[in-house]
């Protein structure tokens, strides 16, 4: 699934809009689990590790 989202985004981080290798990116739920979000392609985006850390850091 990660691979699919990666291809959809063409390897571009949705936050900083730079290109990364797939192993440098992490999946993120657009709509969080506790709000009823599902782990589907449509509800997933890939962030680079830096942005993902920044997002979940607070
Ligand atoms: Zn980024």
Structural summary, described in words:
This protein is an alpha+beta fold and about 60 residues long. It has one domain: Orthogonal Bundle (DNA Binding (I), subunit A). It is built from two helices and two strands; from the N terminus they run αββα. It has a two-stranded antiparallel sheet. Bound molecules: zinc ion. The site of zinc ion has 7 residues, from β2 and α2.
List keywords for this structure.
single chain; 58 residues; alpha+beta; DNA Binding (I), subunit A; two-stranded antiparallel sheet; 2 strands; binds zinc ion
Secondary structure layout plus pairing:
Blueprint: H1 2-8, E1 25-29, E2 44-48, H2 49-56
Antiparallel strand pairs: 1-2
The structure holds zinc ion.
Zinc ion is lined by residues 13, 15-16, 47-48, 50-51.
Number of helices, where a helix is a run of at least 4 consecutive DSSP H or I residues? 2
Q: Compute the separation of the termini in Å.
A: 26 Å
CATH class: Mainly Alpha
Write out the distinct hetero groups bound to the structure: zinc ion
List the uncertain runs: none
Structural class estimated from helices and strands: alpha+beta
């Amino acid at each position: 699934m990660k691979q699919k989202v990666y291809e959809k985004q063409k390897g571009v981080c949705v936050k900083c809009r730079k290109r990364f290798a797939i192993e440098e990116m992490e999946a993120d739920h657009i709509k969080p689990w506790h709000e009823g979000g599902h782990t589907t392609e449509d509800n997933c985006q890939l962030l680079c590790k830096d942005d993902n850390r920044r997002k979940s850091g607070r």
